[in-house]
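Hi everyone, sorry if this is the wrong subforum. Our group has a chain we'd like a structural model of before ordering constructs, and none of us has done structure prediction before. Sequence below.
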Amino acid sequence: MSSSQPVAVAPLERGGVVSMLGRKLTDWLPALLVLIAVLALWEGVVKGLHVQRFILPPPDAIWTSFRANQSSLWHAGWFTFQEALGGFALGCGVAILFAVVVARWNLLGYALMPYAIAANAVPIIAFAPITNAWFNPLTKSSKMAIAAVLCFFPVFVNVVRGLRSVKPQQIELMRSYAVGELTVFRLVRVPTALPFLFTALRVASVLAMIGAIVGEYYGGSLESLGANINQDASLFQFEKAWAEIAIACIFGLGLYLSVALVERWATRWQPPPDFQSS
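Answer:
Right subforum, don't worry. Here is the predicted structure as tokens:
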């Protein structure tokens, strides 16, 4: 015999930074073990097979170079990160604005979408020299432009899809209460689009660092990571070049985790995946 008594539901767990990222400390253990295994295998293969340092230096040599040059490495990493962050903010901001307009007026979407796809099809390595001609190659502006172009398309497409993925029943329900389009946008379309937006932002956070470094290969300041990697590789300082690549990975990972943290905060009203599947 079924009971009509309400069933108590446990509140969603709240926690610190780790829980906001959606993981427990133990969840990071497999990734840490894989990293240790890869580094050990790398070290063993390079030294066991006597691989030349210009092909692949061993991790211990890269670590030694990192410790010897850490002040200049962090400075160069911060310089490049500012370019990536500026391009990330610019590209994502413009993409969100365009996506809102396109999702609101379908005719504009049909007119602008082919050009957005065409712009994304241009290889960024071919676009970098052009931006250096538009801007001073020794400033951050050209690198921000390249990073912005890389970030624009994934954010634009995902936000448009998110804003258009609202169920018709939800729109009809809101209109039955005689609410305006702005209220429908704020209460229905935006919450629906948030998962799509943050998925795109996580992808864009990685692309931003790539765009900034690629732009620096074609005329960056000597304070930047890309210019230093290019210069050190040409001077056969491969251990330092790999240390600079590691710094780029650290800053890129930091930006990615920052986006994930903001996502966890912005979508805290949603139950976690384990709760949804139970």
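For your construct planning: Confidence is low (pLDDT under 50) at residues 1-18, 273-278. The chain is about 75% helix and 0% strand.
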